[in-house]
Q: What sequence folds into this?
């Protein structure tokens, strides 16, 4: 059969590997729940072009490696570190694999507060799902310059963080023309489902030195770097604080302030991106009943509107 095209790109692996890990410290337990995607690039072209499976690490094996490292890795409770450990092992174990792409989605679990002898306390091994937002980590591990010259790019952030404020949000002075029906408003409900991602400066990764290439050694922890456990906490807190406290002239303006705060507080973060879809709440017109519910100061009953919705996005880079 004659060929009219050539293979310009190939990447494969395992998606939606669901992991719950329990780490026990006596009666005090920790848990993480992850959805993991692990994809590989390398000298795999012949599996596509010549039906040569000898270059294929089975996706089932990738799944098993993910579970095995979830068992043995001392870094499993931290999604950035676990993703880097998994990616490093994959490119180190297989000579013909030159890049690994690992995405870890962490679901929320928090300790259940209970009554204790000395007042409220966190339960040592009982947890609740206290939100639908997720931590997201994306790692690209590159061994193309040698198995002893590993480099990584890491992007982390949050998805599906639903927020709402009932005042101190306006939208006025926008373009008006024959297509404009939107009424200017100096006070409205502002709600969005926040997707935040921030990218760290590229970093060198120490190659494992053990025979099974299962070790992963952390460097010295630099504040504001990917190794700093406080970065996700600061980024989430900055996002929520600016959303709540900003007297918003627009979603765009509030977004920009959020991103500037994340950059200012985390020295190794190079870019910050947000995607903020509008969650519209429309005041119900009750004038037919002689009831005022449209004037902002008297609007108290709203109709949630799922679609269509505005979508505001931007990326802010460090100077």
A:
């Amino acid at each position: 059969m004659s060929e009219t095209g050539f293979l310009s790109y190939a990447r494969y692996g395992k998606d939606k590997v669901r992991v719950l890990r329990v780490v026990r410290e006596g009666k005090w337990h920790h848990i993480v729940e992850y959805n993991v995607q692990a994809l590989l690039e390398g000298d795999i072209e012949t599996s596509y072009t010549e039906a040569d499976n000898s270059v294929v690490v089975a996706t089932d094996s990738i799944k098993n490696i993910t579970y095995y490292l979830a068992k043995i890795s001392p870094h499993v409770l931290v999604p950035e570190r676990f993703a880097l450990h998994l990616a490093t092992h994959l490119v180190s174990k297989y000579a013909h694999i030159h890049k690994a792409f690992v995405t870890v989605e962490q679901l929320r679990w928090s300790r259940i507060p209970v009554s204790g002898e000395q007042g409220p306390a966190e339960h040592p091994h009982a947890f609740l799902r206290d939100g639908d937002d997720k931590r997201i980590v994306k790692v690209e591990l590159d061994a193309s310059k040698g198995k002893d010259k590993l480099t990584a790019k890491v992007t982390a952030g949050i998805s599906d963080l639903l927020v709402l404020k009932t005042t101190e949000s306006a939208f006025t002075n926008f373009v008006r023309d024959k297509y404009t029906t939107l009424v200017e408003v100096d006070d409205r409900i502002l709600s969005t489902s926040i997707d935040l991602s921030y990218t760290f400066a590229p970093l060198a990764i120490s190659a494992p030195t053990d025979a099974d290439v299962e070790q992963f050694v952390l460097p010295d922890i630099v504040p504001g770097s990917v190794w700093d456990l406080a970065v996700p906490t600061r980024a989430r807190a900055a996002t929520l604080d600016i959303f709540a406290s900003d007297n918003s002239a627009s979603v765009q303006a509030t977004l920009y302030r959020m991103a500037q705060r994340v950059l200012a507080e985390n020295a190794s973060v190079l870019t910050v991106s947000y995607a903020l879809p509008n969650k519209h709440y429309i005041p119900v017109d009750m004038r037919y009943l002689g009831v005022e519910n449209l004037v902002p100061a008297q609007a108290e009953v709203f109709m949630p509107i799922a679609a269509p919705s505005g979508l505001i996005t931007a990326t802010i880079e460090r100077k």
